[in-house]
From TrEMBL:
Organismal lineage: Bacteria, Pseudomonadati, Pseudomonadota, Gammaproteobacteria, Cellvibrionales
UniProt-recorded Gene Ontology molecular function terms: [glutamate-ammonia-ligase] adenylyltransferase activity; [glutamine synthetase]-adenylyl-L-tyrosine phosphorylase activity; ATP binding; ligase activity; magnesium ion binding
PANTHER family: BIFUNCTIONAL GLUTAMINE SYNTHETASE ADENYLYLTRANSFERASE_ADENYLYL-REMOVING ENZYME, GLUTAMINE SYNTHETASE ADENYLYLTRANSFERASE
One Gene Ontology term, aspect cellular component: cytosol
PII-uridylyltransferase/Glutamine-synthetase adenylyltransferase domain segment(s): 302-440, 834-923
Domain Glutamate-ammonia ligase adenylyltransferase repeated residues, every copy: 54-276, 560-811
Entry coiled-coil feature ranges: none
Annotated organism of origin: Microbulbifer marinus
EC number: 2.7.7.89, 2.7.7.42
Homology family: Belongs to the GlnE family.
Protein name: Bifunctional glutamine synthetase adenylyltransferase/adenylyl-removing enzyme
GO BP annotations listed: regulation of glutamine family amino acid metabolic process
Start and end residues of each stretch annotated as Adenylyl transferase: 452-950
């Protein structure tokens, strides 16, 4: 009975021959014990696959017969340790490194073919092996050189160490069996060693690097450890082997090329001083990851892919599962494209490991649902086949075998019934990768119909030429640009602008590609000239950051959406021109036009802030501003697209303000507590401080560009102090907290302020304390407040801070509003205040109607609601439960205090006015309309005013 029952007949003779050689190498006792273990048919199969599939593993087992027994008996042999102190000379070092390498490599081949480890675990073990060998060799040679030349030091006498950056698969912890390791060597600062034979640091570290490479790369009787490739360093083979940090930073910032950015995506320190290595990575980060959305990376990836494909065709590499179509490199390119485009803005995408990165890309909407799992499965299959190819003879290859026998061996080693089965799986996987690659990276002309923009190319290029004016005017007229002369003048002004003439070649080419696309797309709008006029300021604003033009060129739907939104609203056009980074919001129309709940907005902001360094206040403030701008743009887009009705627009803008106030308060709290300690009686869970919203924010009626009317309250003991080293009383603490919060909200950074803040509605206005205790607030409201301040309280509600204090304030507000009042006196004071406001603020005249302050306008409705709330809340507390006018009117009906038809008429008028006000705001027009508009609504409001307030 043969020992290997499960081995296919065509390989049985080879396997029996191999087994005989192993038995000859092993002693009888070891052979007997091993054959007892092999009564387990699963282990028989594992040995068969491993010996048939890998000559290298078979040879290692013959050299060290005990290795096979060890593999059969354990789940993980672990990496052997190497004691640097015990290594006497360089030959001993090289021998020890190779022994460890051969044993670890043999194990990962066994675990893979035996089905005990998946590819990520195999790759991780090989990466750990490389890190161990690099660090051991580095430590040993560093000691030898220090003994000869002394310790390398900087100008201040600090010891210097070599930092080894692992690039490519080593950096990503994805190392494969017979991979080169791509390294870059760096040290912190120039200087010299402190020994008797002193040399410059540069020479010391160059010699160290050379010796390190030799210990890893040289072929000896035991083989090699890793082939070392240093060509990714600055200037490649012609550059210095080692560079100091400042030289590296200068090179990448001034001469770094796009392909070097791709390489840096996976760069990771693998040996050397950890703290120093972190400093180096921080220096290199701005080169790799740009602060803006950078679609220019796609062009460079296309160029690299085109170069690889030319090599594939020239060298007949279509069966190369790494470089061929649908190969490993295409999956890597897909991931790198998104990393380089968005990694500057989305730190989570800086993940080096491909299999961890793909789900993040799908989670953030960069890949279609299901694409991450499909790409991962395809990638894992290709990597497993790659490992099997390299395991055969410990050679670096990714080319599928052409010989039938080797094909069948490969299929058997990988657990397939036949080569045909494996080949079909590979074809399916490569097709999936190829399809996704084309969707992400293939040039638009390869996957799209010829563009109508080609017709506009000549017009744009000749727009400043008088000789072509007649032809160009005719083309513009035919396309609907009216007046055509105005459109041509706009184009000529841009083309002849000094800033355009001064553009680098690449940026000029991008502009020349964008303008015909823009003209073609604008001609499809209802008013082409209006669309062109509004979008050109954005074009001008991004000329020096032309990566944004690539974004437009690469994404035709973005250009259509851009023109549609700019045509609908000059406010949107202005926001985009001021903050081109918002163009990113147009990339996914589903996300752009999908309304968000209050919880969605708060959660998204929380996640955005987690991406920012908690110690970098400036970055946190910029993140808040960008979030506000992007969310405001989404809301405006949803409004002009008809996705959101008026009330929902105000809700969205209100929820956004609330989320930002809560986050800003948290930032302010952390800073002030850090300086002064915690106030007595307060904690991070209950800061005993709350923000009370008044006006539009309180009434859930925020519009685009609205200020925030807010008041600050606390309920801590003002006589007690904070517990910090610099202690202050509680009242001063909360005053400083409010001041810091206002600073965060109002400071004009590069992105402008977050919100303008008005705190004049606090007790005693500008002459009162910035922060009021709840007891002082209650006393003021009961004893000193004017009627208009009680009116304002109708729209007040807590929006951020201590949940307990917010609940307490709501109870206090209800108590204050439900106080008994003299209705006659209340009516007189409300009417007097309304007359005073109209005299100062109403912009109505014989021809125009002021939506807000005109007779029968918004404020009249608000005053009626406030009067009703204050007059009748004592008998119906439910009418002041809400703070927005519409729900108060509905509550008045529910309480039987106002006829349903009357409330409905006021609600309809209120909605109509506010809807028009929103529309005018997006058109950047004042809230004044023609006098013959809204006549019915005005009449209804004035009739109700007469009935209610006389």
């Amino acid at each position: 009975m043969p020992l290997f029952k499960s081995c296919p007949a065509e390989f049985l003779s080879q396997l029996e021959d191999q087994w005989s050689h192993w038995r000859d190498a092993a002693d009888e006792e070891l052979a007997a014990k091993t054959e007892v273990l092999l009564k387990d048919e699963s282990l028989q199969l594992a040995v068969a696959r491993s010996f048939v599939g890998s000559d290298f593993l078979y040879q290692q087992c013959c050299r060290q017969p005990q290795l096979l027994m060890d593999l059969l008996q354990s789940a993980d042999l672990g990496l052997e340790t190497i004691a640097v102190d015990s290594i006497g000379d360089e030959q001993a070092l090289d021998r020890r490194l190779r022994q460890v390498r051969n044993r670890a490599t043999a194990e990962v081949i066994w675990r893979d073919f035996a089905g005990q480890w998946d590819i990520p675990r195999v790759c991780l073990r090989l990466t750990e092996l490389a890190e161990l060998c690099i660090q051991v060799a580095l430590d040993w040679h560093h000691r030898q050189l220090v003994a000869r030349y002394g310790e390398p030091r900087d100008g201040d006498g600090n010891a210097q160490s070599l930092v080894v950056l692992g690039m490519g698969k080593l950096g990503a912890r994805e190392l494969n069996l017979s991979s080169d390791i791509d390294l870059i060597f760096a040290y912190p600062e120039p200087g010299e060693t402190d020994g008797d034979q002193s040399i410059e640091n540069q020479k010391f570290f160059q010699r160290l690097g050379q010796r390190l490479i030799k210990s890893l790369d040289a072929m000896t009787a035991e083989g090699f450890v890793f082939r070392v490739d240093m060509r990714l360093r600055p200037y490649g083979d012609s550059g210095p082997l080692v560079s100091h940090f400042a030289a590296l930073e200068d090179y990448y910032q001034t001469q770094g090329r796009e392909w070097e950015r791709f390489a840096m995506v996976k760069a990771r320190p693998v040996a050397g001083d950890g703290a120093v290595a972190d400093e180096l990575m921080e220096l290199l980060r701005p080169f790799t990851y740009r602060r803006y959305i950078d679609f220019s990376a796609i062009d460079a990836l296309r160029e690299m892919k085109a170069l690889i494909q030319r090599q594939v065709r020239a060298r007949g590499l279509s069966d190369n599962i790494k470089l061929g179509r649908g190969g490993i490199r295409e999956v890597e390119f897909i991931a790198q494209a998104f990393q380089l485009i968005r990694g500057g803005r989305e730190p989570a995408l800086r993940e080096r490991n491909l299999l961890k990165l793909l789900p993040l890309l799908e989670q953030d909407g960069h890949l279609q649902a299901g694409a991450a799992a499909q790409l991962s499965a395809a990638y894992l299959l290709l990597r497993r086949v790659e490992h099997a190819l390299q395991a055969e003879r410990d050679q670096q290859t990714q080319t599928l075998p052409s010989e039938d026998e080797r094909r069948q061996k490969l299929a058997f080693a990988l657990g397939r019934d036949s080569w045909e089965q494996l080949h079909a799986e590979l074809a399916e996987a490569r097709a999936a990768i190829e399809s996704e690659f084309d969707a992400v990276i293939a040039p638009p002309e390869e996957i799209a119909e010829p563009s109508a923009a080609e017709e506009w190319q000549g017009l744009w290029l000749s727009s400043a030429d008088d000789a072509s004016a007649e032809t160009n005017l005719h083309t513009l007229e035919q396309a609907g640009y009216a007046p055509a002369r105005e459109a041509l003048d706009l184009l000529a002004d841009l083309r002849a602008a000094p800033m355009v003439a001064a553009l680098p070649t690449a940026a000029r080419e991008r502009l020349d590609q964008t303008m015909p696309l823009l003209l073609a797309a604008a001609s499809l709008e209802r008013e082409p000239l209006l669309a062109l006029t509004r979008v050109l300021p954005l074009v001008r604003s991004v000329l020096r950051r032309s990566a944004y033009l690539v974004l437009i060129n690469e994404n035709p739907p973005v250009l259509s959406q851009l023109l549609r939104l700019c045509s609908a609203s000059p406010w949107i056009a202005e926001q985009l021109a001021r903050h081109p980074i918002l163009l990113d919001e147009l990339l996914d129309s589903r996300r752009l036009l999908a309304p968000s709940s209050a919880a969605d907005i708060a959660d998204e902001l929380r996640r955005e802030m987690l991406r920012v360094d908690p110690d970098d206040l400036e970055a946190q403030m910029e993140a808040l501003r960008h979030f506000k701008q992007s969310q405001s743009l989404r809301t405006a887009a949803q409004e002009v697209s008809g996705v959101l009705p008026l009330m929902k627009v105000s809700d969205a803008l209100t929820w956004l303000a609330e989320a930002i106030l809560q986050q800003s308060l948290q930032l302010a709290w952390v800073q002030v507590v850090e300086k002064y300690g915690l106030p007595a009686g307060a904690s991070a869970e209950d800061m005993r401080f709350a923000i009370i919203a008044y006006g539009k924010l309180g009434g859930l009626e925020l519009g685009h560009g609205s200020d925030l009317d807010i008041v600050f309250v606390h309920d801590a003991d003002p006589q007690q102090n904070t517990d910090g080293a610099t202690s202050i009383d509680n009242l001063r603490f909360y005053t400083r907290l409010a001041q810091r919060l206002i600073h965060i909200l109002q400071t004009r950074t590069l992105s402008g302020p977050l919100y303008e803040v008005d705190t004049r509605l606090r007790p005693s206005g500008n002459s009162g304390l910035l922060v009021t205790s709840t007891s002082a607030f209650e006393k003021y409201q009961r004893e000193s407040a004017w009627t208009w301040e009680h009116q304002a309280l109708v729209r007040a509600r807590p929006v951020a801070g201590s949940a307990r204090l917010c609940a307490d304030f709501e109870q206090l507000r209800l108590q204050l509003l439900c106080e008994a009042r003299d209705e006659k006196k209340l009516r007189e004071e409300v009417v007097a205040m309304r007359d005073k406001m109209r005299a100062h603020l109403d912009k109505s005249n014989d021809k125009n109607f002021d939506l807000k302050h005109g007779p029968g306008g918004i404020v009249d409705i608000e005053f009626m609601v406030q009067y009703a709330a204050l007059a009748w809340a004592q008998k119906a507390p439910s009418i002041v439960r809400y703070t927005d006018n519409i729900r108060i009117l509905e509550s008045l009906t529910d309480a039987g205090l106002m006829p349903a038809y009357q409330a409905e008429h006021l609600i309809d008028a209120y909605k109509a006015y506010r809807s028009e006000g929103h529309r005018l705001a997006l058109q950047q027009l004042p809230g004044v309309v023609n006098g013959d508009q809204f006549t019915a609504e005005r009449k209804t409001v004035l009739t109700n005013w007469q009935q209610l307030l006389g």
